[in-house]
Design a protein that fits this description.
By secondary structure, the chain is an alpha/beta fold. The chain is built from 15 helices and eleven strands. Helix 2 runs antiparallel to helix 11.
């Protein structure tokens, strides 16, 4: 073979190899976009239901992808210094990849999420389910998509009930002068100011020491969260079941992260979110007479722990609803009148 022929053969082999590399490159590149670890942030920790949903989601995704998408939970909002209201911002900054959020903690950045905090909009779980599984829930997903995140499933942190260390709360005037902690959102300051209480905004991480020292008199959270964190041991001896607002859970992924997943992996992540959400909702509603009318074990557990529990009648709730109606109207305008009307219609049809 002449030197010229040899040179042509070498050049041809290099060219063919180059074509092969070019064909292979997209697949190699795609595989390399997967991180060794994906960070999932959630407020609180096990055993509370919101956090349980996060751990379930992480475990399902990791197992179902055989570890290719390795999700690790960072509980207690530790990636944002314990300030759960910063999780959405941190997702957009690339610090957090996955989040199971309380909608209350999203509401300072996404005004539409205050719909769940409108006082006495949703009287029961049927109304909540109708709202998140219908047109309103879809509209809220679109709102979140405009914030560079991909919402995948609605979960639930639960209806927020009121506890305190001082006295039973059965009528609006009973709240006068009490220092009540709230997590986030100016709507809660308006609600409690309107009822004559002294609202105090405080992170979840600071709540337990504040209750134990008496820096605040009371707080509002779901029953099963109250039990899980043993707030009865923090001088919280009075509980009012009033269902004044509900805290939805939202399973979502940062959009830049989502865009790196294949279609098959996206389906796994989405279905895992939905499955974990079901577990979360079940844990939130356990023992409240919702899943099983005969199972009120969580309410009974309050009594066993020495918590005096008052369940408001329909008329008693109406008194609180009347007292907080100016707050409802103010915030309905900020959430969006059309969206609130649709939510009211869905709640009324379901209840």
């Amino acid at each position: 073979m002449s030197e010229r022929t040899k040179g042509f053969a070498v050049t041809r082999r290099v060219a063919v190899a180059g074509i092969g590399a070019a064909v292979m490159a997209p697949w190699v590149s795609k595989a390399q976009t997967l991180k060794t670890e994906y960070k999932l942030s959630v407020v609180g920790n096990r055993p509370i239901a919101l956090s349980e949903g996060a751990f379930q989601w992480a475990e399902m995704v990791t197992q179902r992808t055989n570890g290719r998408i390795n999700v690790k939970v960072y509980p207690g909002s530790q990636l944002v210094g314990g300030d759960q209201t910063r999780e959405l911002v941190a997702m957009r900054q690339g610090i957090i990849d996955f989040t199971v959020s309380s909608t209350i903690n999203i509401s300072p950045q996404v005004r539409e999420m205050n719909i769940f905090s409108l006082p006495f909009l949703m009287p029961n779980h049927k109304a909540f389910d109708a709202i998140v599984n219908g047109e309103v829930g879809q509209a809220l997903f679109k709102v979140m998509e405009s914030r560079d995140v991909v919402p995948l499933a609605w979960g639930e942190n639960g209806f927020r009930e009121l506890s305190n260390s001082k006295r039973p709360i059965q009528k609006p005037e009973d709240l006068r002068g009490l220092k009540i902690r709230f997590a986030a959102g100016a709507i809660f300051a308006d609600i409690y100011n309107g009822l004559g209480a002294n609202p105090v905004q405080m992170s979840f991480a600071d709540l337990q020491p504040a209750l134990s020292t008496g820096a605040v008199d009371g707080q509002e959270n779901p029953v099963n969260l109250f039990l899980g964190l043993k707030m009865d041991a923090l001088a919280q001896k009075h509980m009012t079941i009033w269902n004044y607002c509900v805290d939805a859970g939202l399973f979502h992924v940062a959009k830049p992260v989502w865009d790196t997943f294949s279609a098959a992996d996206k389906e796994i992540v989405r279905e895992s979110a939905r499955d974990a959400a079901k577990v979360q909702i079940g844990a939130t509603r356990k023992g409240l007479g919702v899943l099983d009318p005969n199972d009120k074990s969580s309410i009974e557990e309050l009594a066993k722990r020495g918590v005096a529990t008052v369940t408001l009648t329909a008329e008693e709730k109406r008194a609180f609803a009347r007292a907080t109606r100016p707050v409802f109207d103010k915030w309905a305008a900020q959430v969006g009148a059309d969206l609130v009307k649709k939510a009211e219609a869905a709640a009324n049809a379901a209840s």
